[in-house]
Amino acid sequence: MNIDDFKTGWQNAGNGSYSEKEIEMMTKITSHPTLKKIRVKMLAEAIMLTALLFGYYDGFDGINKPLYLNVLLVLSVCIYILNNVVGYIFIKTPATEFNIKLSLYKQVTTLKRVRLFSLFSSALYAVSLLAFFMNGIHFTGQKYLIMSLAILVYLVLFILSYLTWKRKIDHFSRLEEEF
């Protein structure tokens, strides 16, 4: 290729026109494959947690547990599922302002709110699950060890979740600073 070919290519660039429908399909976020994976994960979690709610009363002696623990467990599962739905909606509909700097600012602000709700719902779910299953147990050394390991696993998962959120927010904050 010589310089004339490049010049001709440059002058002809952008002459191909797309219809509004084609442009809309190219920019449509809802058809993204990552969203499909998130939807499948969210649906699987919702089904498993709903099955837990239907089976915990008989299967895990919910009838013998205090009412406040039953309410706390049901409430925490519902909040956890709601958190997944809110997160999905947020990802599906990002901030679209006229100014990209304003869009990034709104994205960071919304991410911080979603992070708080996500971490709160995860912690509430973990605490309610532990409280429900620990109620009425006569603790021995081995049971204390098992409980300590469960708490340690929850703490590690909570920290990993926090770090993931921090990484996402930092990424968008850096993008915002660049503009």
Spell out the key features of this protein.
6 helices; single chain; mainly alpha; 179 residues
Spatial shape? elongated
Structural class: mainly alpha
Counting H and I runs of at least 4 residues, what is the number of helices? 6
Low-confidence stretches: none
H-E order: HHHHHH
What would the average pLDDT be, to the nearest integer? 85
Rg computed from alpha carbons, rounded to a whole number of angstroms: 24 Å
Strand content: under 5%
Instruction: Measure the end-to-end span.
Output: 37 Å
| Biggest β-sheet description | none
Share in helix: over 70%
Number of strands: 0
Give a quick precis of the structure.
With 179 residues, the protein is mostly helical. The protein contains six helices and no strands.
Could you give the topology of this structure?
Layout: H1 3-12, H2 20-27, H3 33-59, H4 67-92, H5 100-134, H6 141-178
Protein described:
The protein has 6 helices and no strands. The chain has 179 residues and is mainly α.
